[in-house]
């Protein structure tokens, strides 16, 4: 039989009334206070469970997308051959070559981003594991994995990962949770200004505005997976648009300075 917090407190107050000093206690105020505490606690638990379930479902979709991507990469030669057949059958040779060049550039952009971001996240995950061990945090491997996986999402990833990590540490040591937040912030700054730029460089060729916009649109449409692939997809669309514009300008012999 599960006893709720409200039932436990109500039972304790009922037992307290049997003692002689109970006449000096305002039980009406105590009951109101207990009701308020129970309401706040219930809201907190509900929010926590919703957050954990939402995060878990997001991770599930992320890994499912990752598995599907692996299978697509495994059979990419088959897909590429099918696309070539379709293009040559549907368009002129010049148009087909133009499309194939776009696909080749898109593959380079996407591959460079995913591989670079994976390497970046592995390094951040290892640093997180070492840092949490120094702090003496519980479940260091789990915490490091959360930080590493969410780091795949630019800008917002570290903050998304910091929420479940902080909650986990908070249950064991509130003071350590504060130090955990400080450590995650320092690690995020190190990644943002040193590790990330060294690995990814300027491969995306986009300003922070377009990167953030890509994350918001991708996340709104496809959740965690959309936030991950939103940046390279936006970079690919930008590349397609720029090539199309430059091609049209070349046809008109227009040079824009």
Outline:
By secondary structure, this protein is an all-alpha fold. It has helices at 5-16, 27-74, 76-90, 93-135, 140-150, 157-170, 174-200, 208-251. It folds into two domains: 1-74; 109-251, no CATH class.
Your description of this structure?
α1 (5-16) packs antiparallel against α2 (27-74), α4 packs antiparallel against α8 (208-251) and α6 packs antiparallel against α7. The chain contains eight helices and no strands. The model has no long low-confidence stretch (mean pLDDT 79). Helices cover 83% and strands 0% of the residues. The radius of gyration is 27 Å and the shape is elongated. The protein folds into two domains: 1-74; 109-251, no CATH class. It has 257 residues and is an all-alpha fold.
Rg over C-alpha atoms, rounded to the nearest angstrom: 27 Å
What is the share of helical residues?
over 70%
Overall morphology? elongated
What is the β-strand count? 0
Total number of domains: 2
**Strand residues, percent:** under 5%
Mean pLDDT: 79
Low-pLDDT segments: none
Question: H/E order of the elements?
Answer: HHHHHHHH
Largest sheet: none
Q: State the separation between the terminal residues, measured CA to CA.
A: 77 Å
Count every helix, treating DSSP H or I runs of 4 or more residues as helices.
8
> What structural category characterises the helix and strand content?
mainly alpha
